[in-house]
Automatic annotation (TrEMBL):
InterPro entries: AFP_Neu5c_C_sf, Aldolase_TIM, PseI-like, PseI/NeuA/B-like_N, Pseudaminic_synth_PseI, SAF, SAF_AFP_Neu5Ac, SAF_PseI/NeuA/NeuB. Residues 287-342 form the AFP-like domain. GO terms for biological process: carbohydrate biosynthetic process. Coiled coil: none annotated. It comes from Paractinoplanes rishiriensis. SMART domains: SAF (SM00858). It comes from the Bacteria. PANTHER family: N-ACETYLNEURAMINATE SYNTHASE (PTHR42966), PSEUDAMINIC ACID SYNTHASE (PTHR42966:SF2). GO terms for molecular function: N-acylneuraminate-9-phosphate synthase activity. Signal peptide: none annotated. This is Pseudaminic acid synthase. It holds the Pfam family SAF.
Length: 342
């Protein structure tokens, strides 16, 4: 059985990334804030600059000029600035467990997996850029833990290969995340309509790793069947940080938690017709009523019979049939018009 699914509210993952800004105290405060906001999990990333790349000042190792967040920065220096020191991991995992939320991480090499296994990480996430690193996927899958695979930039063939590698290595529980690997991501390139396509193609739970601004996109994703939502979080965007520009602040994360559940509840069923909640409103549909005191022998006119709320009388469309007929009994104002009165 999958850890996630459309039979329950969306699982909310707060991604810390580099928004600790180099401070363990801030990292722990982020864990506390995520828990207080109602997130189900806090996720970090386990790497060092040296496990990600090499320190070479060459254009191929440099982010393009004009990038919204990291223009011209070299990969090594960016990863050095953004990484979560490995000796912080125990404290972060301990704090999360104390707060009642799930700690886990994205590992990027064997040494990261070894560290996370020592911490008894309950699951692993494969980042979008690592979806083609099938040896890493097989390594994580071989732990027997659930695996979450993000699909930013990936083709159908690459996604299928990653899932096959995970399942072939023994992973019993794979969740795939629709993702646009742009920071921040334009809403018009998020393509939420691919969520049900992925679900049908893979037969697996599908979530959303979202890098757009705000919470509108992930809420919309719930309507397409997203069962997990991952968003970057920060204590305050004004404090800066590598990912702060597209990260949620605690109050926004709380709103995401609440509104994603509300959106999931609203999906309901395909049944058409009055619901239990509409029973009271159903009483106040219009019907034909006597709206002036009349006596037997009086003619039915537009002055003494009208379509008003509530229900109880003849259907409004019967007005053309009853006009001109005569009342057979004295009838008081406020009496539903029925066939035995005329």
């Amino acid at each position: 059985m999958s850890s996630f699914g459309t039979d329950r509210r969306p699982f909310i993952v707060a991604e810390m990334s580099g928004n600790h800004n180099g401070s363990l105290d801030r990292a722990l405060a982020l864990v506390d804030a995520a828990a207080a906001a109602g997130a189900d999990a806090i996720k970090i990333q386990t790497y060092t600059a040296d496990t990600m790349t090499v320190d070479v000042k060459h254009p191929r190792f440099q982010i393009s000029q004009g990038h919204d967040l990291w223009s011209g920065e070299y990969l090594y220096q960016l990863f050095e600035r953004a990484h979560t020191p490995w000796d912080w991991h125990q404290a972060i995992f301990d704090r999360a467990r104390e707060q009642g939320i799930t700690p886990f991480s994205s590992p990027f090499d064997r040494t990261a997996v070894e560290l996370l296994e020592k911490l008894d990480a309950p699951m692993y996430k494969i980042a979008s850029s690592e979806i083609t690193d099938l040896p890493l996927i097989r390594l994580c899958a071989g732990t027997g833990k659930p695996l979450i695979i993000s699909t930013g930039m990936a083709t159908v063939r690459e996604i299928a290969a990653a899932v096959e590698a995970a399942q072939g290595a023994g992973c019993p529980d794979v969740t795939v995340l629709s993702c646009t690997a742009s920071y921040p991501a334009p809403p018009e390139e998020t393509n939420l309509r691919r969520i049900p396509v992925l679900a049908g193609m893979l037969g697996l739970p599908i979530g959303l790793s979202d890098h757009t601004l705000g919470i509108g996109v992930p809420i919309a994703a719930v309507a397409y069947g997203a069962c997990l939502i991952e968003k970057h979080v920060t204590l305050s965007r004004q404090d800066g940080g590598v990912d702060s520009a597209f990260s949620l602040e605690p109050a926004e994360l709380k709103l995401l938690r609440e509104e994603s559940e509300r959106a999931w509840q609203a999906l309901g069923t395909t049944r058409i017709g009055p619901t239990e909640a509409e029973k009271e409103s159903l009483r106040f549909r219009r019907s034909l009523y006597v709206v002036a005191d009349v006596t037997a022998g009086d003619q039915v006119t537009e002055e003494n019979v009208r379509s008003i709320r509530p229900t109880g009388g003849l259907e409004p469309d019967a007005i053309g049939t009853v006009l001109g007929r005569t009342f057979t009994v004295d009838t008081a104002k406020g009496t539903p018009l029925t066939w035995d009165l005329i």
